[in-house]
Amino acid sequence: MIGLSGMTLRRWMKKPEHFPIPPVYIPAIRDTCYRLASEGILDPESPEVKEILISGLSTGEHHAAIVNLGLSPDFDNNPVMTEEKILTSLVVIGAQGKKQLEVENNPAKISSFKSMGSEWTERISTLVSVIKSRKMGLTDKFIAYGALFYLLTPIDFIPDNIPFLGLFDDFAILGFAATYYMKMKQSSTKGQYDLP
Description:
The chain is mostly helical. It has helices spanning 6-13, 26-38, 47-54, 59-69, 83-94, 97-104, 107-112, 118-132, 142-152, 168-187.
C-alpha cells in the first residue's frame, strides 16, 4: 500500500529504532495510515498512529485554522493545550458576532451531527440549550457558541476532511464545553441554568 519494495522494508527493519524515514515516503505512509484507520485495521488512538496522522498537518493549515477561528497570532506561544487554554479560546471564538450568527443560522447542520451517536447528541443538546437559555447572559454563552462554531467550520486544527480523525477534535471540544456547563449547573444553587 505504501509503494515500497520488500527489499526496502527489510533494509529499514535492520535500522536502529529511531531511524528517520526518508521524507519522500512520509505522504504515502500517512495516507496509508488514514486508510487503515478508517477501515478499522489500525487503532487511531495508538500514539504511533496519532503521531503519523497529526504530522500531516502543515503549518499553513494550522495558521489557516488560527485565522479562521479568530484566535490571536500568538496562540502558539504556549503549545501546551490545557483545559483553561481550550475554554479561553472558545470564549474568544464565541464572542465574535459573525461566529454567533453562523451558529444561529445553521441549526439543521448542527443537529445533523447528532446522528453520530448518543454522546454527540448529549453534548450538542447541552450546548444548544445553553444558547437558547433565557436565564443566561450572552457572555455566559460564549463557550457554547465557540464550541458549536468549531463543530461547524471545516477549517479547524484537524481539518474535517481527514478521514476518520477529522472530527475527533470537534468531539473533544464539544466535550470540554458541555462539561464546563454541567459543572456550572451543579455548582449553581439558584437554578439559574436551565440545562437538560
